[in-house]
Design brief:
By secondary structure, the protein is an alpha+beta fold. Helix content is 42%, strand content 26%. 34% of the residues are buried.
């Protein structure tokens, strides 16, 4: 048994990589349990780490004895909120200076709104420290106690001793999460998982069976000529949002955006048959069509041109993996099935339809799709049967 307040076992555990804690919340839980075992009378603790994500500014972790660690995500607006700027979290992150308030002392400065809440809860001592990363970013950790008189000098020294090794662990975990966030954002979740697992060699591909989704915005060139660049980007973002939300809701994966086009896949697998993925892709297509119809109506009501879309659905085998130059790769799908879907998408304008599908795809959707005829597709030696939704007609789609 070490001296009360001696946190060297916790420091050694952190220096060894906190390997018994697989998730970030487990790090905080085991850290606090370890501090309690060292005689540090913790009543609560929190860590906030900023991340690199298009929608999420950072994540907070809050520990209380006997409770699971609470994890919350914060948007970018938090950085400008009074809740952040007027409290120790803002002070510590913006100035890089630790804050300690002995709330048990009647003369303790009550210079942050949070301190009044803590004193009302019986907290007697509060310590907020910067977690400095090696790139000079400053993140945040805090500890508090209910012990009469607050932390002793030895206990406080024990807390200070864990701050730097905790910062190293927080940085390592944050870098891993940032890498995952960036890969998920730019190449898709499943592709990102494969890349992080080491599938990064050029030519590393595998054959997969999947429902393919290729969509495009009709009349993009005249729209681009008639709009300010900022508004055009906003229109594209909303156009893609209508589709991406529907694709993800039905377990598809967006692989890439190609100008005003979108390419997504719904892979088959042990738990998802061809029937499952085709019906899911068609349900996503219907949902996206409804979202886009609402968007188009809003655009027209505001006096702006409404973007139309065409979407082709196909089922087939594709090569899935790393393709590209020696030092610039793309994780994507290629093959005749992709080419066929791309050619079919061009038919949507000719047929005045929003959604068309191949025979291979339609075979798994029962009466949900109806034959439209056989069509010659550029680059293919034989005509291909094309199917559409019974509730679409060429005249209706042309008139919209």
């Amino acid at each position: 048994m070490g001296t009360r307040g001696d946190t060297s076992p916790v420091v050694e555990w952190l220096a060894d990589g906190a390997r018994s804690a697989p998730a970030s919340q487990d790090v905080l839980a085991q850290l606090c349990d370890g501090l309690l075992a060292c005689g540090i009378p913790l009543a609560r603790a929190a860590v906030f780490v900023q991340t690199l994500h298009p929608d999420i500014m950072g994540r907070s972790f809050r520990w209380r004895p006997g409770e699971p660690v609470a994890v919350a995500e914060a948007g970018f607006e938090v950085l400008q909120s009074s809740q952040h700027l007027d409290n120790p979290s803002g002070h510590v992150r913006n100035r890089g200076i630790a804050v300690r308030r002995r709330l048990a002392d009647p003369g303790c400065p009550m210079d942050y709104p949070l301190l009044h809440e803590l004193r009302a809860d019986g907290i007697t001592d509060y310590f907020a420290a910067p977690l400095r990363f090696t790139n000079d970013e400053v993140h945040f950790a805090s500890f508090a106690t209910l012990q009469p008189g607050g932390f002793t000098d030895a206990e406080f020294a024990g807390l200070e001793a864990v701050i730097n090794p905790l910062a190293r662990i927080a940085e390592i975990r944050a870098l891993r999460r940032t890498a995952g966030n960036l890969l998920n954002t730019y190449v898709g979740r499943h592709a990102g998982e494969r890349i992080l697992a080491g599938q990064i060699r050029r030519g590393h591909t595998e054959t997969i069976h999947a429902a393919l989704w290729l969509s495009d915005m009709r009349g993009f060139t005249p729209l681009a000529d008639s709009m300010a660049p900022a508004r055009l980007i906003g229109l594209l973002d909303r156009f893609f949002d209508c589709q991406v939300e529907a694709i993800h809701a039905h377990e598809g994966e967006v692989l890439k955006f190609i100008g005003d086009g979108l390419f997504a896949i719904f892979p088959t697998g042990a738990s998802r048959s061809a029937d499952d993925v085709c019906r899911a892709a068609l349900a996503a297509a219907r949902a996206a069509r409804e979202r886009l119809a609402t968007f188009e109506a809003e655009q027209e009501a505001q006096g702006f041109p409404a973007p139309r879309h065409g979407l082709a659905l196909h089922l087939g085998e594709v090569l899935y993996g790393n393709i590209g130059g020696a030092d610039r790769l793309d994780f994507t799908c290629i093959g005749p099935a992709v080419n066929l879907a791309a050619r079919m998408e061009k038919l949507t304008a000719e047929l005045g339809r929003r959604i068309v599908a191949s025979r291979e795809f339609a075979a798994h959707c029962g009466a949900e799709l109806t034959p439209l005829g056989e069509f010659a597709l550029r680059g293919f030696g034989v005509a291909h049967a094309v199917f559409g939704l019974p509730d679409e007609s060429g005249e209706q789609c042309r008139s919209r």
